[in-house]
UniProtKB/TrEMBL annotation:
Tagged with keyword Kinase: no
This protein's UniProt keywords: Acetoin catabolism
InterPro entries: AcuC, HDACs, His_deacetylse_dom, His_deacetylse_dom_sf, Ureohydrolase_dom_sf
Protein name: Acetoin utilization protein AcuC
Pathway assigned to this chain's UniProt record: Ketone degradation; acetoin degradation
Domain Histone deacetylase: 21-316
Keyword Nucleotidyltransferase assigned: no
CDD domains: HDAC_AcuC_like (cd09994)
Length: 392
């Protein structure tokens, strides 16, 4: 039986940039309560594990020691350090910034260890997915890069190859940069076109360093891309490359800010389509990574109507017990949300989107902007792997 670990501690809500910031910790609290209400935590093959604070040596795998000390000092002194990205509108300074950020790294490292040491294992780091943090700078609501730290630990533990697939509307730049010149790590990011969204990177021609050409993969989708086209893009690029790379572990980031209701982005991807993408990742892990799958959260700023439902679906898929999209949401959870946020939430785990899509292998339409985006990536990357960019 495949054992699934979900990593959660209430202390994870301490990663809090303050009132009015989009990265509101209530999104985690509501998700955990929905997971409980839907019975995901009570599944017989699910273990909920606590999230420890990562040690400095864990952070140093991907962050400079000077940066870690500067983050710690900034929190203790209460003095903005804009040279390292702290004390900015995106990353306001708060007293426990080091400890709270290191706990998120500890969460994803705990998940990574469960996946690797209890193979075939699966795990979900709910608060993880802070994919923008760089080696020596905070960026895009991200102070420490838990995903990169977990991948680095997996490589140190003996993994020969890792595949990383990022579903966030924003380019997964920090993870890509950490492994830019490392052929062992395939990073695939499917995101809104960088000409229209932060961080302004992640073009198809960005394919990795001189020692790892083709290891960085970027699909830059036009604003307004919706369910069927988004799923088509994810499958058309991630599936053949993960199959070819044959990773020891599949690592995925599931930022749900690609949803049409998200206030910061311009994609139109429903909860139903994101659930289907999670199922695709499950299939890829089983077929090409020996069943080892580490999933994380990420962005997502419709904190009531979208984030809890997407990540509850994701956790259930990771656990091998997908939830039917038409399943009613427990009335007690809906009432609690109304009391806390004074916001009505949908009655079911679906918002009427689609999980159906036409596979790129069945034909390429050069007049379609999404197909052109897919083809630009395949042409830039596939030849480095000896793969034909044209559909079969």
């Amino acid at each position: 039986m495949v054992r699934t670990s979900i990593v959660w501690s209430d202390e994870l809500v301490g990663y809090d940039f303050g009132a009015g910031h989009p990265m509101a910790p209530v999104r985690l609290m509501l998700t955990v309560e929905l997971l409980r209400a839907m019975g995901v935590f009570d599944l017989p093959d699910v273990e909920v594990r606590p999230a420890p604070v990562a040690e400095d040596r864990d952070l140093h795998r991907v962050h400079t020691s000077d940066y870690v000390e500067a983050v710690r000092a900034a929190g203790e002194d209460g003095v903005a350090a804009e040279e390292i990205g702290l004390g900015t509108p995106d990353n306001p300074l708060f007293a426990e910034v080091h400890t709270a950020s290191a706990r998120i790294v500890g969460s994803t490292l705990t998940a990574a260890r469960a996946v690797w040491e209890e193979a075939p294992g699966r795990a979900f780091s709910l608060a993880g997915g802070l994919h923008h943090a760089m080696a020596a700078k905070a960026s895009g609501f991200c102070v420490y890069n838990d995903v990169a730290a977990a991948i680095a630990w997996l490589l140190e533990a003996g993994a020969a190859r890792i595949a990383y697939v990022d579903h966030d509307a924003h380019h997964g730049d920090g993870v890509e940069r950490a492994f830019w010149d490392d052929p062992r790590v395939l990073t695939v990011s499917v995101h809104q076109h960088p000409g229209t969204l932060f961080p302004g990177t992640g073009y198809p021609h960005d394919v990795g360093g001189s020692s790892a050409r083709g290891s960085a993969v970027n699909v830059a989708l036009p604003a307004g891309t919706s369910d069927a086209d988004w799923l088509r893009a994810v499958e058309a690029v991630a599936a053949p490359l993960v199959e070819h790379h044959r990773p020891d572990v599949l690592v995925t980031q599931h930022g749900c800010d690609c949803h049409g209701n998200d206030p910061l982005t311009e994609l139109e991807v429903s909860i139903d389509a994101q659930r289907r993408a999670a199922l695709l990742m499950s299939e890829l892990a089983d077929a090409h990574a020996g069943g080892r799958w580490l999933a994380t959260g990420g962005g997502g700023y419709d904190v009531v109507g979208v984030v809890p439902r997407v990540w509850t679906h994701l956790a259930a898929v990771v656990a091998g017990h997908p939830i039917d999209p038409e399943t009613p949401i427990p009335e007690a959870w809906r009432r609690a949300v109304l009391e806390v946020a004074n916001v009505d939430v949908p009655a079911t785990m679906s918002d009427g989107g689609t999980s159906e899509f036409a596979r790129f292998a069945d034909g390429y339409n050069p007049d379609d902007p999404v197909d052109r985006a897919i083809m630009a990536t395949r042409q830039a990357v596939f030849p480095w792997h000896g793969l034909d960019p044209m559909p079969d």
